[in-house]
From TrEMBL:
Organism whose genome encodes this protein: Clupea harengus
Domain D-isomer specific 2-hydroxyacid dehydrogenase NAD-binding: 118-297
Domain of life: Eukaryota
PROSITE patterns: D_2_HYDROXYACID_DH_1, D_2_HYDROXYACID_DH_3
Alphabetical list of Pfam families matching this protein: 2-Hacid_dh, 2-Hacid_dh_C
Keyword field: Oxidoreductase
UniProt-recorded name of the protein: Glyoxylate reductase/hydroxypyruvate reductase
Family from the record: Belongs to the D-isomer specific 2-hydroxyacid dehydrogenase family.
Limits of the D-isomer specific 2-hydroxyacid dehydrogenase catalytic domain: 11-327
Gene Ontology molecular-function annotations: glyoxylate reductase (NADPH) activity; hydroxypyruvate reductase (NADH) activity; NAD binding
Lineage: Eukaryota, Metazoa, Chordata, Craniata, Vertebrata
Length: 330
């Protein structure tokens, strides 16, 4: 039997979400929902008002889900479903204390993120942004022997910081470029994943020293905050390329600027920064050897719709008191 709309659990959706997820909510007949129907984040004050009394929250990574917000929502809130694989915007301790279940969206974005990471790596190592700029602005005089030379993947060592599904997917794609060796570091060896790509477990020091290309794939946690700093960059080769598609907070950006500016490393490609957006007058934007993208690793139509579908299904399962397809263990 259909319940009257007004008696259905209430959901607040913090952004205009990709359509597939909203269709799932709509067709479920299980919830009523209100959306902040904009591409821009809902202002905090508005969010604090809107969450009052809701049963579930469907959010993205720009919303800080902390004690203040959970207090504003009140005791009805049973489920938080984030359309992201990262969850550093969620205060997990506060959610656990209140018995709120949390859904997130790993796996469905792995291919898109790996693909973009490879694109960013090539763009940085082969200096594509500089090259198109030169071609467009008259810098292209004649063919020159060492002009715009970069570094190639063939016979290189690729290092992965934080080996998970995404790191494996990146390595899988890079194999085709004739990489000589994959190495990785993590809190402990992860043989079941490493075996898939014949990657060798090394210390952080060795990762820095050996990598020709270093891809950061670890989650942002108190332990990984600023883990890519002066110390790491100083151990890297002058010819190495640093790539980050995880979270900006894992990198000390001042140290990265110094390393790039001093030629301590050859280049960096960043899809994530602190803050986001990175102010256009940030020193990193002045460097030719730094390619900065506006956090687009998962931005394909297919993937963003898959993420919103998974987030919607997680949310509905959580409200029904059933296991979610992807639930964070708190
Ligand atoms: C995530 O999901 O955490 C990515 O950073 C955005 O897709």
């Amino acid at each position: 039997m259909q319940r009257a709309l007004s008696t259905l659990p209430r959901v607040y959706v913090t952004r205009s979400m990709p359509p597939d997820g909203l269709d799932i909510l709509r067709k479920s007949g299980q919830v009523q929902f209100e959306t902040w129907d904009s591409d821009d984040p809902v202002p905090r004050a508005e969010l604090l008002k809107k969450v009052k009394g809701v049963d579930a929250l469907f959010c993205v990574l720009t919303e800080k889900i902390d004690a203040e917000l959970l207090d504003a929502a009140g005791p009805n809130l049973r489920v938080v479903s984030t359309m992201s694989v990262g969850y550093d915007h969620l205060s997990l301790g506060e959610l656990k204390k209140r018995g709120i279940r949390v859904g997130y969206t790993p796996d469905v974005l792995t291919d898109a993120v790996a693909e973009l990471t490879v694109a960013l790596l090539l763009c940085t190592s082969r200096r594509l942004v500089e090259a198109t700029h030169e071609a467009k602005t008259g810098g292209w005089g004649t063919w020159r022997t060492l002009w715009l030379c970069g570094y190639e993947l063939a016979n290189s060592t690729v290092g992965i910081m934080g080996l998970g599904r995404i790191g494996v997917a990146i390595a899988d794609r890079l194999k085709a470029f004739k990489v000589k060796k994959f190495i990785y570091t993590d809190v402990a060896p992860r043989p079941e994943l490493a075996n898939q790509i014949q990657a060798e477990y090394v210390s952080m020091d060795e990762l820095a020293k050996q990598s020709d290309f270093l891809a950061v794939c670890c989650a942002l946690t108190p332990d990984t905050q600023n883990i890519c700093n002066k110390d790491l960059f100083s151990k890297m080769k002058k010819t190495s390329i640093f790539i980050n598609t995880s979270r900006g907070g894992v990198v000390n950006q001042e140290d990265l600027y110094e390393a790039l500016n001093a030629g301590e490393i050859a280049g960096a490609g960043l899809d994530v920064t602190v803050p986001e957006p990175l102010p256009t007058n940030h020193p990193l934007f002045t460097l030719k050897n730094c390619v900065i993208l506006p956090h687009i690793a998962s931005a394909s139509f297919t993937t963003r719709n898959a993420m919103s579908s998974l987030a919607a299904n997680n949310l509905l399962a959580g409200l029904r008191g059933e296991p979610m397809e992807k639930e964070l263990k708190l």
